[in-house]
Amino acid sequence: MKFTATLASLLAVAYAAPVAEAEADAAPELVARGPGGTNYIQNYNSNLGSFTSNLNAGTFSMYWDNGINGDFVVGLGWSTGSARQITFSTSNLAISQSAAYLAVYGWINAPQTEYYIVENIGTYNPCNGLQQIGSVTSDGSSYQVCKGTRTNQPSITGTSTFTQYFSVRNSKRTAGTITTSNHFNYWKNYGFSASNFNFQVVALEGFSGKGHGTVTVS
After folding, report:
1. Measured in whole angstroms, how far is the alpha carbon of residue 1 from the centre of its chain?
2. Could you state, in order of their start, the residue ranges of all structural domains in the chain?
3. CA-CA distance, 120 to 106, in Å (whole number)?
4. CA-to-CA distance for 175 and 172, rounded, in angstroms?
5. pTM
6. Which strands sit side by side in the sheet containing 50-54, from one edge to the other?
7. Which of 61-70, 72-81, 156-165 has the lowest mean pLDDT?
8. Cα 118 from Cα 102, distance rounded (Å)
């Protein structure tokens, strides 16, 4: 499937790479707004692969088939997050040869927090090396839950120190509905504040290997 919209001239946003992975060299970049419910595009360090999007269809594609040695995150969603149900589907998803994952990804403004609800992973589990804080069951599977702190790292406000929360699905999937409130409510027991949201997207992230995929969000 081919999409015509590109992000060559859009505006800047920030992103922080996972714990234990190298930071990308490029500055945080690129966001767009468009019509409809899914109206926010994030594209960080897109020179590591090929990214196309179609806001009207609620779809984006990412290709890093030639391999990467850095970091990217691209996604489609909302400029302001919330405890919403998010339905997604994928086609041609291939991340098994990449340190990559498919996830709901977003930020809280204050206290500054980065969060992921990971639906599918490749060769790297982002909970490795972080504080393990149990598990939560949601949408037909249990999720491994972990928490970490990033010190003086890239963020939505530049270089800062912030908390990360991850829920990593134990039964990988390529389509379905994500009830974000189930994760937010569990994380609240460990200091998460489900308010003052910044953006919230369904994203593909990768930082080594090769892969590709098309994602539709609603």
Report:
1. 22
2. 31-217
3. 16
4. 9
5. 0.84
6. 50-54, 59-63, 212-217, 85-94, 175-179
7. 61-70
8. 6
- What superfamily would CATH give domain 31-217? Glycoside hydrolase family 11/12, catalytic domain (2.60.120.180)
Q: Quick check: bond before 28 cis, omega within 30?
A: no
pLDDT digits (tens, 9 = 90+) for 68-118: 878 889 999 998 999 999 999 999 999 999 999 999 999 999 999 999 999
Helix (H) or strand (E) holding 181: helix 180-188
What's the DSSP call for residue 19? Answer: T
Residue numbers annotated as active site = 114, 205
Rounded-to-integer distance, Cα 110 and Cα 62, Å: 31
Nearest alpha carbon to residue 199 among 79, 67, 32, 54: 79
pLDDT at 17 exceeding the cut of 80: no
Sign of CA dihedral 192, 121, 17, 204: negative
| 3-state secondary structure labels for all residues of 89-124 | EEEEEECCCEEEEEEEEEEECCCCEEEEEEEEECCC
The alpha carbon of 90 is separated from its chain's Cα centroid by a whole number of angstroms, namely 15
Say which residue the tokens 């919209």 belong to.
Answer: 5
